[in-house]
Amino acid sequence: MHLVPASDAQKLQLDALTYSEWGRLLTLEGYLSRELRLRAHPWARADMRTWLLCADDGAVLASCETFRTGSFQRAPGGALLPGDSFAIASVFTEERLRGHGHATRLMDLLAAELERQPRAHAALLFSDVGPRLYARSGYRELPAWDWHLAPSPGAPGETVDSLLRESDLGPALDRMRRPELPFFFWPTPTQLDWHLERGRIYVEHLGCSLPQSAGATVGGSTALWGLVGRSAELTVLMFDARSPAEAIALLEAARREAHRAGLSRVVLWEEPGNASLLPLVAGATRIARDGSLPMVRPLRPDVHPPALLPVPRGLWV
Ligand SMILES: CC(C)(COP(=O)(O)OP(=O)(O)OC[C@H]1O[C@@H](n2cnc3c(N)ncnc32)[C@H](O)[C@@H]1OP(=O)(O)O)[C@@H](O)C(=O)NCCC(=O)NCCS
Prior knowledge:
Layout: E1 2-5, H1 8-22, H2 28-40, H3 42-47, E2 48-54, E3 60-74, E4 80-92, H4 102-115, E5 120-127, H5 132-135, E6 140-141, E7 145-149, E8 162-164, H6 169-175, E9 183-185, H7 189-206, E10 215-218, E11 221-226, E12 233-240, H8 244-260, E13 265-269, E14 285-288, E15 293-298
Parallel strand pairs: 4-5, 12-13
Antiparallel strand pairs: 1-2, 2-3, 3-4, 3-9, 5-15, 6-15, 7-13, 7-14, 8-10, 10-11, 11-12
Helix pairs in contact: 1-2
The protein binds coenzyme A.
Coenzyme A is lined by residues 21, 62, 91-93, 98-104, 127-130, 132-133.
């Protein structure tokens, strides 16, 4: 058995097979065109690979995708050393081939391949099948809690200093505080736009509109959000609130944006940096996340992802 990058033709064959898993809301044609469109996005073009586990005769046994994702290691003096981490998505074994250890083998060979990358830091994935399968290949699960807020009427801009547009993703990310940790992941503006691209694809199937804003700022605090998938929700991608009052103001703007766009709720992933603020937000409910369990695996012995590593929704793939 060996691991190979998929050719374009192999990616198309795979799309037809994975439709039954990930094509919900879309026709087969719609799903095939979604996949092509997402692969054509600048982030995917630059940083996405599709991998195949093949038998000795070349038959495909399992597959997955990797997205190169920025990460930083803090040197003893405090300097941030950039590196490459890899978010793994779409782990898939055809139904008739399941239960023979192919996905496990794929994850093991992929980790060995990623460890050989010159700037490799860590691998990250979001399990929809619990922790056990990936724990076998060295991945450790992180906490996974969400906060839900109901939409509320009103002008979104009233509670904040400014509403952000999609063209503001870069400056908004620059305003945000990096975690004070020995290691952390940090997305690029193009990576965040890939989420918004998913929303642009799904919006016509959801009976809502695209949010007019992509986030907000108030004082030194910043949030980035969007419609990002097949749920009609306003999903917060990045959240840096420097006080309870600013957290409340940002989330009120998000609730109003959700209302204006006809979305059913606001969803924010809990991170160590916002966990103490969110209980202070009236009407916010804490829910154990269903799926998308973050799991991390170092790719180098000197990279130590902390137990409370922040994993914002903007890192999801
Ligand atoms: C999950 C999947 C990739 C596993 O492929 P596989 O080649 O059968 O994997 P392996 O043989 O290495 O391991 C199978 C393990 O996965 C577990 N598993 C498979 N589907 C699962 C699910 N929905 N929930 C929990 N565990 C699941 C099996 O119970 C088995 O566990 P065990 O060996 O500890 O009993 C395959 O079932 C699949 O393609 N599922 C649909 C797509 C999907 O959900 N992908 C994962 C996204 S995170």
